Amino acid sequence: MLRSSGTYIPMTTIAPTAGNPSGIELSAQTTVTTAANALPAVGIVDLDSSLTAGFKPAASLVTPRGLHTATLLDDGRVLVVGGLTDNQGFVAQSEILDGGVWTQLSDPALGGNPGGFMVGAGGPNGAFATVRFGHTATKLATGEVLIVGGFGIDSFDQNGNAVQGQLASAYLFDPQTNTFAATTGGLAVARSDHYATLLPNGQVLITGGYNGAVNQGAGSTLPVAELYDPFQRTFTPLSQTGQDMTIPRQAGSATAINGKVLYVGGQAFVATQQNPTPTLYMAPDSESFDPATGAFAADGALTQNRRYHGVAVAASGDLFVLGGDSGNAPLASVERYDATSGTFTAVGNLGAPRARTQAAPLRNDVLVVGGIEVDYQNQQVSDVPSGELYNTVGNVTETYVLQAPRNSHQVVALPDGRVLVIGGYTGSTTLLGTTGTAVGACEAFVIP
User: Which residues contact 172 (CB under 8 A, 6 or more apart)?
Assistant: First the structure.
């Protein structure tokens, strides 16, 4: 145990030069060992206190990216797939976090090329790496990860030019071999910004999302649902009509809770009888899918319709919906969904409104991280450079400064109790979150 006393004055104290100054310089006769590996640190060292809650620096991604997916594997590693880097460039390479270090999947230590890529066949020069963002990643009961759809490139036209658009292709990541393999068949309907939820029977329900080729190229949010069979490795439409969801949805949330899948808010780019031109609407309230009946039905009414919000199921079993955007104003309000009664209740507010945020359960609380705030009157977008720990019992929140502002990022609750914040964008200029600078730095929220 190292104790220090007195007042540290940077102007008159010789501070360590490595990293942030701690104000403590060890004599040559003093040895400090690190808690992580018990190795000695002699001479000038920095002390990283774990006595206060907050965001701490973590290993950086090999390739900065936003709009990617991040999945906690059964062996404790974290898999990151796809996304966009600066200037909306596709990221083809996937990465694994193992032992506190990010490694590209093509690294020889993990199996080597082409293990790090989702490989398509039939390119102008043979096999090629498919790329995507706005896809989903779902960990199956087998431990494999199902990568579905998104916007990207997985084909070429007759002239050998890459074709960009919504994707129907899907891949399985095998954590035993660190490789991807295409599923036996793809989606019946290509889509991006959709939902994918693991059902109790091991199937994966694919719902909603957007397809820019339907409506004679005018595009639309989809009501179509499909089921992935992990045994046949194929997708099957839920119905013959394709009119499955009560309301087409994207940019909302889908959560498995109390034996059903609950869809909250979002938006819908659709045509109506009154307006045959596809128009953007807020998707109101919520709906749920019952695996027992195989049907969708309207669920609880939101106190405030919202999109790009954060959601997390707390230790109590209740679902919390935090922040987002109403379509004309940023939101700080929080709602609690009671799965027993099927009702939403307003329970408080965040310290700052935030859209394109992420949330994760943490002990008895919910951590909401980053995001952007849109000033609709002045048409300006600004980063929210903080995270908040929302107490689900007292309905109060504590604010913590992020190491780096970000949106379109991912958060993963780690087995050791930390929440890892991965990638994203900073300095975005639109609500879509596809502009700005891609963030490579990661950080972890820690509670002592």
Answer: 144, 145, 146, 147, 180, 181, 182, 183, 233
End-to-end CA distance of the chain: give it in Å, rounded.
17
Residue 112 has pLDDT above 80, yes or no: no
Give the pair of three-digit tokens for residue 115: 């293990």
Q: Which amino acid is at 69?
A: T
Q: Would you state the structure tokens that stand for residue 191, as one six-digit string?
A: 């889509």
Length of the chain in residues, anyone? 448
Spatial CB neighbours of 307, under 8 Å, sequence gap ≥ 6: 251, 252, 265, 266, 267, 282, 283, 324, 325, 327, 355
Measured distance CA(304)–CA(311) in Å, rounded: 14
What local confidence, expressed as pLDDT, does residue 271 receive?
A: 87
Q: How far is residue 398's CA from residue 211's CA, in Å, rounded to a whole number? A: 39
DSSP state of 86: G
8-state DSSP, 59? P
What token pair was written down for 118?
A: 């989702």
Tell me the C-alpha distance between 61 and 38, whole Å: 26
Instruction: Kindly state the tokens that stand for 168.
Output: 């129907």
Strand partners, 443: 57, 421
Who contacts 190 (Cβ-Cβ below 8 Å, separation ≥6)?
Answer: 149, 165, 166, 167, 168, 211, 213
Q: Please give the Cα distance from 98 to 440 (Å, whole number).
A: 16
425-426 and 437-438 strand pairing:
antiparallel
Contact indicator for 35, 448 with CB cutoff of 8 Å: no
Mean pLDDT of the region 351-372:
96
Question: Could you tell me whether strands 225-229 and 234-237 are parallel, antiparallel, or unpaired per DSSP bridges?
Answer: antiparallel
**CA neighbours closer than 13 Å in the CB half-sphere of residue 68:** 34
Residue pair 355/323 in contact by the 8 Å Cβ criterion: yes
Structure token pair of residue 158: 């007759």
pLDDT in tens, 208-231: 999 999 988 999 999 999 999 999
